[in-house]
Amino acid sequence: MGAQVEEEHEFGVNDTAADAVASKTKPINSVTDFSPELLSIYYSRLFPFELLHSWLSYDPSTLTGNTTKQLAGASILSRREFSTTVQIHGDEIYKRYQSFSTQADIATAIRKQNPLKIDIGAVFNYAPKDHKSLPGGKLQPVQRELVFDVDLTDYDPIRNCGCSGAAICGKCWKFMVMAMEVMDAGLREDFGFKHLAWIYSGRRGVHCWVCDEGAREMGNDARSSVASYFEVSLASEKNKNAHLPHPLHPMLRRAHKILEPHFISSIIPEDGHGLLATQASWTKLLLTLPEAANPVSIELEKKWRSNKHHSSPAEKWEELKAALQSFIGKSGNSKAPKNVSNSDKLKIEHWPIETVFKYTYPRLDINVSKGMNHLLKSPFCVHPKTGRVCVPINMELVQEFDPLTVPTLRQLMNELDEYAGDSVGHEWQKTSLKGAFEHFQKKFLNPMLNDVRKSQRAEREKRAAVVGDF
Amino acid sequence: MNVANRSSRAAVSPLASSSSAATTAVKGGLVEVDMYTDIPSFELSLDEFEEFALARLKVLRKIEELKTRNTPHEAFRTALASTLKQHLPNPKIDAASHYILRAAYCRTEDLRRWFLAQECKLFSFRLENCSNIREFMKANSIDLERVDKTEKERLRSKLTSVIGAPSPLEFPSTEYYKVPFMEALRLVSNRECYLEKGMAYIPLAKIISIVEAKYRVGLSKSLVFAGHNIDNATDEEHSRIGPLLKSMNSQYTGPTQLSSLDNGEALTAANVDANARSMPLCMSQLHSGLKRDHKLKHQGRLQYGLFLKGAGMTMEEHTAFFQREFTKIMTGEQFNKQYGYSIRHMHGKEGKRASYTPYNCMKIVLGSPPSGGEHHGCPYKHYDDENLTALLGKLKIGSEGRDAIMKLKREGNPNLACAKHFEVVHGGAGSVEGVSLEGVGNHPNAWFAASRKYYEAKEGGGGGKGSLGSGSKEIEVMAE
Ligand SMILES: [Zn+2]
């Protein structure tokens, strides 16, 4: 069974061997932000078991607390796989196929295990904890949220802020903001999904959980199709000839509309990734133009090098685009040189879009999305390397989200100690987790459960109509 | 054979998994396209059952062959169209044969995959040819919402920004439909459609791929369902149809006039004895029965006579041979009176002048078993284990070979047992030049032709002259 572990890469796989050894011998470098003791307090006082339970039950009655009735939702929870990573004598043990029937069961098990990480798997046809007593192959996933995983490590070739690997800064976090905006728009507008939860992965990435009933019931082929729909192969060092197909699909057109302003504000300026900020960087960029556009690069290079023009990177970008347009005869009364072929014209026309995409388009870890049975880290966990909580992200304020100000365990303990306000229902309400958790409840959980309620009612009426029992 | 009078329902009950309205588009007699969601309920004779199944098998094997050879699209379409015209000329044969083969090919994963692949190619071919796709979809309750003019205009720039979209000139006359994106996954994957709020906007031409996907999924499900249920069938018909279905995938559909492939010396009354060693067990039993009793009963005369005809024996030689044997217990006049006509009839020289083809193994296996004094039938099917073991022993087949043959026989695989017999007595036949094992175990004439080639190659001469003695004695064994 151990060989079946499909680990989400956030934790473990991408860490260097040295990191892994270090984590065994001494706790974490930021000892003040994370420790097993702090984690234990987090699980006993702050972890929002009620939110996790309410969500994974897909049971509207959890909203009112009236859960005495045995509803279909309760059985969804009990067939859900939970996996935990626990530390025993310095070794990390991965425990799969756990399942729980009630919120109290979850809380008891988690508090007892004090896991470094909790993963959420699929809902199966049987309770996964019984997997050993089932004949081989009998346990089959039957539903699962459609999930997406974006991680900054996949952006290393284009990060030009000094960060690499696990390190992040405000400049490179912008990549995550862009990915979230593009994916959120695509999933809602194109696929009509409504119930999306965006979660900070605790260090350098984000996860998206699409929880609409239709999404949860999708098979692997449908998941692959949706993932492929968003997948764009961009020119890279390895594959310089990857080009966007023509015409540009409406989804990509919209993505470009979202991304170009970010490209201008975060990628090209000096205080961003500096793509057009210095002579060295713009020369490098001009060299990526199709060969047929050489006259344009030569002219602009010469112009920008002379000190007469102190144009900003944004002005340079507009100037470059205009020069290309006019070169291929797409603007004003200019005419394209006769020796430029149609296919070259097309390449030149697409170059600005491809360039924007190369530096901004979401780089998804597509395999996470394709399989129903792929485990993904639970929201509300704490990342052991940073001590930060995997908090829900408010898409309305996504540009303001700063991963470096997400509360750490140490900070939360201080906030608990310093709290002097009124008594509250949940202790997390005393801390800076309040905003993110309440947002999750009000903007994601409640609307989603209301939709579940509506569809349950419709289902009941349909059944009643069939048996004539109105 | 009197099976022609028995009738049999083509639909094997456990295969019924869906029941919607009739869904066939027919044009000029030929089937245009059919989703096969409606189980046919007409009566078929056992002969028709077999004939139709073989006809479709020929079509599916042709499809496989054309695809394996990477036949260009147009050539593929032309070849398939003519094959269809020849073998599946009307909707009855088409529907019946589809369901018979569905039952025959649902038994294992490999068979299902093969059948699904060929049937889907056939379906796509027909759908592409279909003159009225909209009508077809309506009949098959494929629910598509047509995009109205206003919406189409509103979305013009988006709809035309998709790979493979109609040109600006074609756009006004292109009909668009919207379907839930889950119905158009392949198009979604490749961004070959515009998506809005979970609906995929698709031009009519591309709807084809959706219908194909639906057909594939439906057929695949039905096959798996049938595969799980076929063995539970208690239908009394099942006991008769069962063996037929089981052997279907190994049916020989090659040329039945095998003599035409055989460049060796023609089979005559004079050399037939010498060639008896190349006959499969069923035929060598008939041969020795004839030699011993100097007569053959009706079923035996048909089975053996058509075999000889198939092996290239002319009507004259056929008559001479039978006359030589029969006249040992009757006068020439009696023979001519009683049997001359039926031999000429077999060769198409009397009566309807139909040309009768030699029996294939399925026909022999499914035929009535031999009773006292009869030598027809299939020894691997109709003999009991003890008799067959003894017979093989007398044929000097070693115990190892005998065990292998008997094992297959006991498992209810007469075809495989017969092929094993061939293998045992023709060591290394597979690597002998000119010997084709295709059809060995499925058609007595294929067995015979392969064996003759084998001896020819081994002995460097025709027909196995001079090796008659012991071989002939070995096969003079009673079957009872
Ligand atoms: Zn950075």
From TrEMBL, chain A:
Family (UniProt): Belongs to the eukaryotic-type primase small subunit family.
GO BP: DNA replication, synthesis of primer
Keywords for the protein's UniProt record, in alphabetical order: DNA replication, DNA-directed RNA polymerase, Metal-binding, Nucleotidyltransferase, Primosome, Transcription, Transferase, Zinc
Gene Ontology annotations for the cellular component aspect, listed alphabetically: alpha DNA polymerase:primase complex
Name this polypeptide is given: DNA primase
SUPFAM superfamilies hit by this protein: Prim-pol domain
Organism from which the protein derives: Cyclotella atomus
Gene3D superfamilies: DNA primase, PRIM domain
TrEMBL record, chain B:
Gene Ontology process terms (BP): DNA replication, synthesis of primer
Domain DNA primase large subunit C-terminal residue range list: 276-448
Keyword flag Iron-sulfur: yes
UniProt entry keywords in alphabetical sequence: 4Fe-4S, DNA replication, DNA-binding, Iron, Iron-sulfur, Metal-binding, Primosome
Cellular component, GO, one term: alpha DNA polymerase:primase complex
Record Pfam families: DNA_primase_lrg, DNA_primase_lrg_N
GO molecular function, one term: DNA binding
Organism domain of life: Eukaryota
Residue ranges with Gly residues bias: 460-469
Cofactor: [4Fe-4S] cluster
Annotated spans, Disordered: 459-480
InterPro entries: DNA_primase_C, DNA_primase_lsu_euk, DNA_primase_lsu_euk/arc
Family recorded in the similarity comment: Belongs to the eukaryotic-type primase large subunit family.
Protein name: DNA primase large subunit C-terminal domain-containing protein
